[in-house]
Amino acid sequence: MSDIMNNEEIFSNCTEILSQIINDTSVPRNIRKAAEDSTNLLAKDEEPTIKASTVISILDDISNDPNIPIHARILIWNILSELEAVKD
User: Fold this and answer.
1) Domains and their CATH numbers in the chain
2) End-to-end CA distance of the chain, in Å?
3) Which ranges of 1-88 does DSSP label H, i.e. alpha helix?
4) 16-69, pLDDT tens digit by residue?
5) Which of 11, 21, 52, 66 has CB 3.0 to 4.6 Å from 83, enough for a Cys bridge?
């Protein structure tokens, strides 16, 4: 049961960080769109590991975008490290 709560806390934290990226107009539109897609995926009722791995895949792709501002890249790295802790 504690894993479920822990996963929910992780998803909640990630959603908060993603909303910072979504609302930051200095971040390119394609990166904000990927952050919005990730937020929508985290809100779905699916297996936690499936949600986490799907979002990791999306965010890993955009973290390598040369147009991403460094502060947004750091936020994405933080999200990636949190999502890697998600358990079944």
Assistant:
1) 2-83 (1.20.1440.50)
2) 11
3) 2-22, 29-43, 48-63, 70-83
4) 999 999 999 999 999 999 999 999 999 999 999 999 999 999 999 999 999 999
5) 52
